[in-house]
Amino acid sequence: MSIATVSLVVNGKADGRVSPGQQEVVRRAVADLGYRVDSRARELVTGQRSTVALLLPELSSPFFGYLAMGVSSVLGGGYDLVLAIAERRGGGAPDQLDRLVGARVGGVICHAPPDAALRGLGTLAAAVVLLDEPGTAWAGPSVLFDLGGGADSLAAHLLDLGHRHIAYLTPEPDSPTFSLRRAAVLRHFAAGSGGSAIELRAGNDFDAAAAAIRAVAAVGRLNGRSAIVCGTDDQAYGVLLALAELNIAVPDEISVCAFNDLPHSRVVRPALTSVALPARRLGSCGAELLLEVSAAERAGRRWTSHPSVVPTALAVRASTGAAPRRS
Amino acid sequence: MSIATVSLVVNGKADGRVSPGQQEVVRRAVADLGYRVDSRARELVTGQRSTVALLLPELSSPFFGYLAMGVSSVLGGGYDLVLAIAERRGGGAPDQLDRLVGARVGGVICHAPPDAALRGLGTLAAAVVLLDEPGTAWAGPSVLFDLGGGADSLAAHLLDLGHRHIAYLTPEPDSPTFSLRRAAVLRHFAAGSGGSAIELRAGNDFDAAAAAIRAVAAVGRLNGRSAIVCGTDDQAYGVLLALAELNIAVPDEISVCAFNDLPHSRVVRPALTSVALPARRLGSCGAELLLEVSAAERAGRRWTSHPSVVPTALAVRASTGAAPRRS
DNA sequence: CTGAAAGCGCTAACAT
DNA sequence: ATGTTAGCGCTTTCAG
Q1: What pLDDT is stored for residue B168 in this prediction?
Q2: Matching CATH topology for B49-131+279-309 and B147-277?
Q3: Which of A153, B192, B197, B248 could bridge A314 with an S-S bond, Cβ 3.0-4.6 Å?
Q4: H or E stretch covering B99
Q5: Residue A258: which H helix or E strand, with range?
Q6: Phi, psi at residue A106, to the nearest 5°?
Q7: Per-residue flag: B16 CB under 7 A of strand C
Q8: A44–B39: do the CB atoms touch at under 8 Å?
Q9: Do A65 and B62 touch (CB under 8 A)?
Q10: What is the sign of the dihedral through the CA atoms of A205, A211, A213 and A216?
Q11: Dihedral of the CA atoms A5, A7, A10, A15 (nearest 10)?
């Protein structure tokens, strides 16, 4: 039993080339010794790549958890998924990228890359797909949310309820997905159409959002606003917190809504009206796209196409109601 | 400039062995070509392992997100983190493990492994640390929450408020961490001490928990219970949902509390009293432990010690209040 | 100080 | 049907 024979058997290429007897012998030995092929050595000689990297800014929001599960589920048992969390403060993104090229990953799926990383991605010599990164210079494969559609539904809902004057709270640091959400909502409340909007900024977490609202309320800038629209659910939760403290009734005095529709939006009080952004599908579409792209690249074709877009839907709940009559 | 010289330079072992001139030449070439060492080939020859696997049951709860971030932050740039999600239904755990041994991972950090996986872990020939898996047959390195302490605080809080008759909702499928939480709470409400408890089971998500409560309330089994304790925050959110539907006031008619203290527990209404289980620390301690263990193994020593335990703390909020006078 | 050579664990083409 | 050989991209002796 030579070393090459073993290779043939474990790779299922032993069809007419190894006698059934030998095959059994090999199989038993493999089982007894608990032998597994060293995938690194295998890839070294075959040149195939069986690991894909998922590059995320963080993982504390369930949004990214769902996204990762979506990716994982389509990659399944066929690939190793390496997780790179590019926590902004660390600035460790370049490091992470270096590791990935060193590991010869077969592909990268990337959400909200720090700008430095975005440039580095080009160098990667691997298939790259970008997620939820609309309207950047990126010409490569990507999958987007239908944010425009979602924003339109949300605005229509608000307009229906009589809201004309809103505040828009947007996460900072800004990013393309956030600025698109903002622009797509705000254009429905442009001054010309009899509406108006003020813009607020705060970090993308409960406390920062709550603090921003408290500060704005303290100087009376919320007066005359009948709705607050937030870039993310997490911000909206903070807004709800602050409004409760301030004894401002939602939605009777002011309506609140946002983008994401995390599961928790059903259970906060009042339950949050939100544009559902199906993260899991974003991840699974991204992974499927990556697989296609890298297959195409391996076949020598360059892959070109418009971004895939995953649909969004407005979930209407108790946090939005009719605008109060202006006093 | 030979191939070996390059190796010396890029590995910083060129001290007195390569002339400064050559070093510069090499460095420039490396920069120009964008060359990175192939870490797979390197590890093939050196025998070192620079990737660790994180094995999780799912990622949709922020709990696991924080855990993963904790792991990632201590592993930092030094290791690749491969993520294996062993979604229970898939039963894909054995597959996942096979991949990991094939990839020759240097270590595995594991939370709530399916039983099949747990057995397989022994075979792994890599350092393994278990997280939040108390009192199993596992004798190896692990890090635990101080669940006993947390349960005691929670029970004391409830007892203080006059609660004697509770319902305990526990996630299913059961697991060691869940059964320990349950046992540690329930012993404070044993029949002998003038208390009583009924046990409820439901899947670990909002809807399953809500359905369980509705079902139990429908047959009047909640009568006489002044508090519901849940194994996880997610269950408690479902309970809150169901109770609101049923027009049962929390905490005036019935108190609700749980384990985990996810960030969202501050924003549900009423805000949830919960035992804080710092997931991020669990992850970072786990990663540190793994690093120690594998260093020890490499040095030939076997690593033995008691499990590390990360402290817990009770966060008291509005969902628990004085037990109503029994009618 | 530098380069040639061996070999890590594998696969694929080539002999036997 | 089986075994032998040549490398995949590296690191590490060991001669020059």
Answers
A1: 98
A2: yes
A3: A153
A4: helix B93-102
A5: strand A255-260
A6: -80, -20
A7: yes
A8: no
A9: yes
A10: negative
A11: -50
Strand partners, A98: none
Distance of CA A317 to the CA centre of its chain: 23
Residue A88's pLDDT is 64
Sheet holding B313-315, edge to edge: B196-203, B165-172, B227-230, B255-260, B273-276, B313-315
Site of tokens 């499927």: A288
Protein residue minimizing CA–C1' distance to C7: B45
Tell the residue number behind the tokens 């035992």, with chain if given: B275
CB proximity list for B135: less than 8 A, separation 6 or greater: B176, B180
With residue A229 as reference, give the H or E element that holds it: strand A227-230
CB B272 within 8 A of CB B241: no
Instruction: Name the fold adopted by A49-131+279-309.
Output: Rossmann fold (3.40.50)
Tell me the per-residue pLDDT of B135-146, one tens digit each, with 9 for 90 and over: 877 888 999 999
Q: What angle do CA A148, A151, A156 make, to 5 degrees?
A: 125
For strand C, the positions having any atom within 7 A of a protein Cβ are 1-5, 7-13
Which amino acid, residue A14?
A
CATH ID of A147-277, from 3.30.870.10, 3.40.50.2300, 3.90.1150.10, 3.40.50.720: 3.40.50.2300
DSSP string over A36-85:
---HHHHHHHH----EEEEEES-SSSHHHHHHHHHHHHHHGGGSEEEEEE
HSE at residue B203, side-chain half, CA atoms within 13 A, is: 7
**Given this model, what pLDDT does residue A90 score?**
54
* Cα-Cα-Cα-Cα dihedral sign, residues B75, B31, A107, A57: positive
Instruction: Say which residue, B116 or B97, is predicted with more confidence.
Output: B97
pTM: 0.94
Query: Is the pLDDT score of B326 beyond 80?
Result: no
